[in-house]
Specification:
Elements: H1 3-13, E1 17-22, H2 32-39, E2 43-51, H3 52-55, H4 64-82, E3 87-92, H5 94-105, E4 109-113, H6 118-132, E5 137-141, H7 163-177, H8 222-226, H9 228-231, H10 244-248, H11 254-264, H12 266-284, H13 306-314, H14 320-332, H15 337-350, H16 355-365, H17 371-382, H18 397-404, H19 409-415, H20 426-443
Parallel strand pairs: 1-2, 1-4, 2-3, 4-5
Helix pairs in contact: 7-12, 11-12, 12-17, 14-15, 14-19, 15-17, 16-17
Length: 445
């Protein structure tokens, strides 16, 4: 869209008000939905809702994700105040808050960026129907991906379900069009002018306490990305970007991060494309939130021993790298990607515990929890996913430790005081897993 066209649109819409609802996109720069709101020429009033429908489901009053969101909402509010506007911050059920804001600002449109998980989809469908009855348009855009799912398809128009061909087509798309950019610097800053700024809610008013989340980076370290392919698999080394929480809540633009990766490290870019792939799977196959992508894997005869699960959760399996990873997760809200695979494999293959149990535990404790990536990773580990490790590929935790933590740096940091004996013999667990998987899969063909 050319600037002259934007001016014409602005004239057509005049001073009519649009609400822009920040959600998982806590930034002004390269924000697609915000760009669209400004480009349409509306007077844009920005809001954020601490949605009690979500917050009330959290089991603890101390949650790193809430603190991360809170601090970035404060930053965003300050940025909008500097532009002569304000971010109105609410606390309550999103549906009713939105109706309140529409009436308060006499808005005729609400624009937001979309998400693909089941709760977000149902919420947005419900809100769209409610607003339609009030002659208010509800419009969403895809901002957390570089390319929309429908734009990276097979020749027959169907979605890819295997990563490698998806990756090739994604790169072709990149070469054809380049990365999109939705910068608003050349658009009229038609943010609602506010003389009296609303006070920011205190964290305590949300019924949450302050906790540190320093392992979640908001800035990209270019040196780490340049060397990502060399150090990414070693959990005892500072070799990953740790930008995943910022990506989850949109304090950084995925498109700008991919542009940097394109210049600095193709392996890092490929990992970001894995993220797009899992989001695409969730978009086209929403059933994966509750079910195995491969239907035959619903028949696996899981042991689901609760005492074994508790030992895994507490990091007392007797396998040092597994225990170190679980302590890193509970103490920091983050876990290295290599050890995410090791711990997931151990739970599903060694202990024969349903991947959904582990997925739910990670969802509760990971600061960067994102439905698509978490689900995709767990289904990959269990063998039930669309593009998964075969069921007979079972990580040996001791060999994984020897290979990726040879000097014991990671284990010493997170599990130095753990003296537990191995809760299960690896060879026994491997043989049992293969037998159970084979019987479950072939008996139910």
């Amino acid at each position: 869209m050319y600037f002259s066209e934007l001016i014409i649109i602005a004239i057509m819409f005049g001073n009519r008000t649009c609400i822009f609802w920040f959600r998982r996109d806590l930034r002004i720069d390269d924000n697609r939905g915000l760009y669209e709101a400004l480009a349409k020429g509306f007077t844009v009033q920005c809001i954020f809702v601490f949605d009690t429908t979500i917050l009330d489901k959290l089991s603890r009053a101390i949650d790193r994700r809430v603190c991360f969101i809170y601090d970035n909402v404060v930053r965003l509010k300050q940025e909008l105040v500097a532009l002569g506007s304000d971010l109105r911050v609410y606390h309550g059920p999103a549906d009713s808050i939105l109706l309140q804001a529409i009436e308060e600002y006499n808005a005729e449109r609400v624009i937001a960026n979309a998400d693909f998980d089941a709760y977000s989809r149902k919420r947005d469908e419900r809100i769209a129907e409610t607003l339609r009855s009030k002659n208010v348009v509800f419009e969403t855009f895809i901002d957390h991906l570089a390319f929309e799912p429908e734009s990276v398809l097979k020749g027959d128009g169907k979605p890819y379900t295997v990563f490698t061909p998806y990756y090739r087509r994604w790169i072709e798309r990149l070469n054809e069009t380049g990365l999109p950019y939705y910068g608003s610097e050349n658009l009229p800053k038609n943010f609602a002018r506010v003389d009296e700024k609303t006070p920011m809610l205190r964290l305590e008013e949300l019924n949450f306490e302050r906790i540190d989340y320093r392992l979640s980076n908001s800035q990209v370290d270019k040196t780490i990305i340049e060397n990502y392919d060399k150090y990414r698999d070693f959990p005892g080394v500072d070799g990953t970007s740790r930008i995943s929480t910022a990506l989850r809540f949109g304090t950084v633009s995925i498109r700008q991060l991919m542009g940097l990766a394109q210049q600095l490290n193709q392996v890092y870019l490929k990992e970001l494309i894995w993220r797009e792939f899992y989001q695409t799977i969730l978009y086209f196959f929403p059933r994966v939130e509750q079910h195995a992508f491969k239907p035959e894997y619903e028949w696996i005869a899981w042991q689901n021993n609760e005492k074994d699960f508790e030992l895994w959760c507490r990091g007392e399996t007797g396998y040092p790298i597994v225990d170190a990873a679980m302590h890193q997760l509970t103490e920091t809200g983050w876990m290295h990607n290599r050890t995410r695979m090791i711990t997931a494999s151990f739970l599903t293959k060694h202990l024969l515990i349903d991947w959904r149990w582990g997925e739910a535990w990670f969802a509760e404790h990971l600061s960067d929890f994102e439905t698509a990536s978490n689900n995709g990773g767990w289904q990959w580990a269990s063998g039930s996913g669309c593009d998964a490790a075969p069921y007979f590929r079972i990580f040996n935790p001791l060999l994984q430790q020897q290979k990726f933590d040879p000097n014991g740096i990671y284990v010493k940091q997170w599990a130095a005081n753990i003296k537990a004996q191995p809760m299960i013999d690896h060879t026994f667990a491997r043989n049992r897993c293969i037998a159970v998987y084979k019987k479950s899969l072939y008996d139910n063909k």
